Amino acid sequence: MSIIFSGVQPTSTPTLGNYLGAIRNFPELQEGNECYYCIVDQHAITVPQDSQLLHERIRKLAAIYLAVGIDPNQSTLFIQSEVPAHAQLGWILQCYCYIGELERMTQFKDKSKGKDAVSTGLLTYPPLMAADILLYNTNLVPVGADQKQHLELTRNVAERLNNKYGELFTVPEVFIPPVGARIMSLVEPTKKMSKSDDNQKATIFILDSEKDITKKIKSATTDSDQSIYYDKEQKPGISNLLDIYSLCSGKSIKDLENEYRDQGYGSFKTDVAEAVVNTLKPIQEKYYNLIETNQLDEILDDGASKAQSVAVKTLARVEKAIGLGRHS
Ligand code: TYM
After folding, report:
1. Three-state DSSP class for 175?
2. How many CB atoms are located within 10 Å of the residue 87 CB?
């Protein structure tokens, strides 16, 4: 049995990238493991948010987690800000991270590039993420490839405190899926598919309509070669569509290459779109059934109290070890 933790920011509806790179694996990991799946709303406010929209997106994300198959009887589903131990341990870990190592994080560099005013939270994002993970004695963290550097920092800070104070933390492993760890933009396939892309055609969102999904895939950037095979360097657009198609259909890339090699891009794209629609449709149906129910609140209340009961124990252990308060 492993302890699994992962989180998603409620900064927009999750994308197909979020789904194929991370969320898709969450329900599968429930069997035989102790899983914590978190809506990391405190991470979301490291960049400006509209408060009403943020509330709505938190609720939406909870419904999406359930719609993809997270079972609240098997997993703990909760909102980060409802478990105060995250911010408390996050502060402590900030005091054991160095500004230099945080400034080297690619996500910080990307998100702060060209901005006049950058919040302190954007810089101290990784120690809060480390706190999320370390509070639950996590063994395994399923994420997309873009989180690898944050996981390395989490392991480093855990080891740093373990070396100084004895075995305080379990040092977690990262789980990055072999296919789908980096789904690319449909417009610029050398760039990651992102929630915040200004070009609406670049990103498929989990709740997009069949019409929008088809339109976006049909207009995806490819190349002028007209031959379908996997080559990330020479054919990034086609390779990205092959990754998406393979994950949504269960067929291997090799089989898809054999099936489509001599067919035109038009019919290939039609079939990719159909596979994506078929993958997302059942999730959307479940989502629309769930979003208005008060079942959602009961699940989140229960999740927060289960998470807090584990998290406070870790926090007390750490505070005691480092000398805070009156722990004896
Ligand atoms: P976030 O909200 O940006 O993304 C959620 C998950 O989706 C993955 N992902 C992708 N996978 C493949 N292709 C893409 N284009 C793509 N875009 C995003 C991300 O790798 C992630 O797994 N820092 C995290 C949230 C977080 C967290 C945590 C994760 C906070 N605390 C603790 C794990 C454990 C983030 O910004 O994810």
Report:
1. strand
2. 13
